[in-house]
Amino acid sequence: MNEQVLIQTAQAMVAEGRGILAADESTGTIEKRFRSIGVENTEPNRRAYRDMLFTTPGFEQYTSGVILFEETLFQSALDGTPFPKLLADKGVIPGIKVDKGTKPLAGSPNELITEGLDGLRERLVKYKEAGARFAKWRAVITIGDGIPTDYCIHTNAHALARYAALCQEADIVPIVEPEVLMDADNTIEVCEAVTGRTLEAVFDELRRQRILLEGMVLKPNMVVSGKKCPVQADRRTVAEATLRTLKRYVPAAVPGIAFLSGGQSDEDATAHLDLMNKMGPLPWRLTFSYGRALQAAALKAWGGHNVEAGRKAHLHRARMNGLAAAGKWDPALEKAA
User: What pLDDT score was predicted for residue 336?
Assistant: First the structure.
């Protein structure tokens, strides 16, 4: 393990005013996205869509890295340049999603466990040769009647730490993503309690499995009300609850926290990040690792053929979130656009 390489890469991933584009949708997930705009889910269309995103002029000013799906890592842009090289030439770090998705947790079928550890050591060698310098593994924690159980939280935390250890062994920075879903009817207080339990378990496992905290990036949910909760917390309450939870459970040795958007609206995801950065100073850099909150507008504008409109929408959201990552966003910028 080359500690210096891991530390330098992790710090670059959370550089001020830049964040991570999560473009790692599986073939099944991107089919849902394409269906919403009437585009057929084929390999050429997936390649063309990602080409549109990655060739957006200027997006690299606000984007430190891109998480790729395995298929995309080995594809080339429309001009023939391998996608990892295209990104690296722009100063954007290529990354790779390495988990194999979720399955029902044995003994607690209403909860989920993430799979993909088998053969991961060998796959990481292949991914590194293709240009990946960081990886991502997502664990899913569901709030519901009697859940999450400690069993689910600790089993997923253990898998996250095993994944992280294998990544660091290969000099690949692990993004550790424990996502508490926001799909239920729970209050923000319940989300805060569950997020705290989850982060406590995750960092306990990371320590046990000898993870270099300076050589990783955390990708957590923000502390929000469940989508079906009749009373939705306002933006300041979300920012305060999220920071309170992170300060309790995330060691200062972690260089940065790159939030997932988790189904928030584009503007809410940006506003929450901006508010938290305005509440500093903080022990870690706060930035974004958004999928839908960076891509939804671009996907709709692209529509399968309008490349320039797609690029314009992508650049706007990248810029808004880049400003939020520096605590410099203003709602008036959205209205002006």
Answer: 73
